[in-house]
Amino acid sequence: MDYEGHEVCCFMTFFRFWMLCTVVALSTGTPAFSQQQPKLVVVVSFDQYRGDYPTSFARFIGSRGFARLQREGAVYSQCYYKHASNLTGPGHASLLTGSYPAHTGIVGNDFCDNRNDACVYCVSDANDTASASLMEMPTVGEILRERNPRSKVVGVSLKDRAAILMCGKGASACVWFDESLGTWTTSTAYPRPKWLTPLNSKVNVSSYAGRTWNAKIPATLNPAYDSVGAEGSFEGGNNTFPHVVLPLNHKNFMSSVMLSPFSMDMVFDAASLALKQEKLGLDRNPDLLCVGVSTTDYVGHVFGPDSREVQELYALADKRIEKLIDELDQRVGRKNYVLIITSDHGVAPIPEVIRDLPQQQGARIDAGRITKKELRTIVDSVLTKRFGPARSGSFIRAIFAPSIYLNKDAISGFNRAEVLGVVVGALRAHPGIGIVTTRDTLALGDCPENLDNATCRYLRNSFHAARSGDVLVFPKRYWVFGSNTATHGSPHDYDRYVPLMLLGGRVLPQRSKEQVSPVDIAPTIASWFGITMGPVDGSPLPLK
Question: Which of 205, 329, 373, 403 shows a CA-CA span of 20 to 30 A to 513?
Fold first, then answer.
């Protein structure tokens, strides 16, 4: 073939290849440029950020934070966890493994393991070192680093479990805030970043002593009343604005900072420092930055989801997201990064508030609280009546809701099925308990009678044969465990419902009502990075 003919042949081959790529891109709804790998993915988890908040709080925010993300990015308005134990540990473990607690092994913030009879904190290993050693599935960051050690995976949060469980093992840097020491820290499970000392110098908690948190949402925007019945109080103050951070020498100083928007500033300032110091997204090796915003959970637990404090906090969070987007645009470039915003769980209404809402119609919503003391009393009383007093003092070893772990020594010699049957029957009589089942039942793949298929699936997704309790209990709708003003941890929709928003890179503006889950985030990131995660519960998000 002469040169001219060869040139024509090569051109036709290239043309056919280009047409094929174009057809594939069009047929999948993905533009051809989408094959470009992002240089940086940033995942921001606002702890206790319920899925209805973006809509409910839209009137309080500006145009360049959450609104810019919703306007220029992808928004999934129907994003739900499909597991039952909606707590911080299980949620953050699911986010970047793409797997539910049944597979991650993180069934709660604390749990007992029947294989070694140890009761542990979810990010504490055998040497009492903070690490991800208890997590039984790899994160997308772990796999990325195994494939390309030059890629960086960095985690920043106030809570150790948020940073650690999103990063996983082998992160290039993972830092969190140690309230007992009042400093940013890491553990021997991770390399000590060179910027940890500058971080403690520049983002120092002592600088917030005496600072005031003022309400700024105009009355014309109809914010919530400043004082809601049953809400808690700011440390050292009351339940109305302004809230003043306590003096540095006050015993509750640290708690008052954590309960203020200043602790949220600390996290975003730390993330910004990490972004710069690690030079994330500035070379050919893709990076991952995980940011856990814990302040929203602290404030939500004390004041509740319908409080003025939660509204004011998210109005300030909007400013931090605006600043983060601007920084990413400037340092990395919109085409080169993807920002993902979501949450580890939602939250239930305050029982005392929702219970009395319809009083004017002469009705009353069934809502209330269940305490560990009640659960222990019920179990010990009914088993003592049937079998006699427990030799060890109690038939219960530990309660980490929803799990009740029975004392093996106390029930040894008795028929296990009979013991469990007695306990289940007694707990079902509690007016606030909606679901009672056992490890033995779930291990067989069964579910309690009269339970709908979806809720049964959520229970199975949260069940781990070695780590779930002998008995598992979940509250009725609008009932909660514990004394926190507002809390979460159930299979009800308000605890499973979270936002999911993406901006940058290949993401085109789109709003979807298709039901998705946070476990879809990890396989989506994996597809962008061109890596394989293995069998997981999630699947890549339906992006245009």
Answer: 329
- As a whole number of angstroms, the distance between CA 440 and CA 456 comes to 15
Q: Is residue 536 part of a domain?
A: no
Taking 80 as the threshold, does the pLDDT of residue 280 lie above it? yes
* Angle in degrees, CA 75, 80, 84, rounded to 5: 160
Tell me, yes or no, whether 382 and 273 share the same domain: no
Rg of the chain's alpha carbons, rounded to an integer? 25
What's the pLDDT tens digit per position in 346-393?
999 999 999 987 665 667 899 999 999 999 999 999 999 999 999 889
Whole-number pLDDT of residue 29 = 34
12 burial via Cβ count (<10 Å: 0-12, 13-18, 19+):
exposed
User: Can you read off the two tokens belonging to residue 259?
Assistant: 């309960």
> What residues make up the domain containing 48?
35-350+492-529
User: Per-residue pLDDT tens for 10-22?
Assistant: 333 333 433 333 3
Let me know whether 445 and 517 are in one domain. no
With DSSP H G I counted as helix, E B as strand and the rest as coil, what are the percentages for the chain, rounded to 5?
Answer: 40, 15, 45
Closest residue by Cα to residue 248 from 214, 212, 213, 205: 205
How confident is the prediction for the chain on average, in pLDDT?
A: 92
Phi, psi torsion values for 398, nearest 5 degrees: -160, 155
pLDDT digits (tens, 9 = 90+) for 62-121: 999 999 999 999 999 999 999 999 999 999 999 999 999 999 999 999 999 999 999 999
CATH number of the domain bearing residue 181 = 3.40.720.10
Positive or negative, the CA dihedral 165, 57, 271, 255 is negative
Q: Give the residue from 18, 53, 47, 69 showing the smallest Cα distance to 501.
A: 69
Q: 262: which 2 tokens? A: 């200043």
Q: What is the CATH number of the domain that holds 381?
A: 3.30.1360.150
Q: Which two tokens stand for residue 472?
A: 């598992």
Question: Prior bond to 247 cis, omega within 30?
Answer: no
Considering the domain architecture, whether residues 79 and 196 belong to the same structural domain is answered as yes
Same domain, 302 and 212: yes
User: What pLDDT is stored for residue 392 in this prediction?
Assistant: 84
Residue 16: which residues within 8 A CB-CB, separation 6 or more? none
Tally of domains in the chain: 2
Per the structure block, which two tokens stand in for 402? 């929803």
Question: Model's pTM, two decimal places?
Answer: 0.92
Whether 393 contacts 376, CB under 8 Å: no
